[in-house]
């Protein structure tokens, strides 16, 4: 089992990594000198047609709109908790809430349809 060292750059910072061949029973490769973790950036809402989909798996904390409500682009339509962080899910365009397919407390999968906008 050969271990090879590589230098990699992430966001302008240089790190050293030791990499072992895949498929061996050796422990996984490690990164050294990472320091503090990189902050999480909110992922964009996945929009397909007139739906607002979950950008990641998580739990619905609250629904901020009701059926028949007019919503503007950028309006927060619900709060999704993922990895112990609350994420505001925003409406991408002007429309009317046609249907809400989730309730507070629901567990959702990535790309699950949450709200339909028309």
Number of domains: 2
Ends distance: 58 Å
CATH class of the largest domain: Mainly Beta
Give the strand order, joined by hyphens, for the main sheet. 4-5-12-10-7
The average pLDDT score comes to 80
Number of strands: 12
Task: Give the CATH H-level superfamily of the largest domain.
Answer: RNA polymerase II/Efflux pump adaptor protein, barrel-sandwich hybrid domain
C-alpha Rg (nearest Å): 20 Å
Give the class from helix and strand content and strand pairing.
mainly beta
Low-confidence stretches: 40-48
Structure report:
With about 120 residues, the protein is mostly beta strands. It folds into 2 domains: about 5-30, no CATH class; about 45-115, RNA polymerase II/Efflux pump adaptor protein, barrel-sandwich hybrid domain (OB fold (Dihydrolipoamide Acetyltransferase, E2P), Beta Barrel), CATH 2.40.50. Helix content is about 0%, strand content about 50%. It has no helices and 12 strands. The termini are far apart.
Task: Provide keyphrases for this structure.
118 residues, OB fold (Dihydrolipoamide Acetyltransferase, E2P), elongated, 2 domains, five-stranded antiparallel β-sheet, mainly beta
């Amino acid at each position: 089992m050969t271990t090879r060292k590589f230098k990699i750059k992430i966001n302008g910072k240089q790190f050293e990594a030791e990499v072992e061949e895949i498929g061996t029973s050796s422990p996984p490769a490690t990164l050294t000198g990472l320091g503090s973790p990189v902050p999480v950036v909110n992922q964009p809402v996945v929009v397909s047609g007139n739906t607002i989909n979950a950008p990641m798996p998580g739990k619905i904390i609250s629904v901020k709109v009701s059926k028949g409500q007019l919503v503007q682009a950028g309006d927060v339509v619900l709060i999704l908790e993922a990895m112990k962080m609350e994420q505001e899910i925003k409406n991408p365009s002007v429309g009317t809430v046609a249907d809400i397919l989730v309730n507070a407390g629901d567990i959702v999968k990535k790309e699950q349809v949450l709200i339909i906008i028309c």
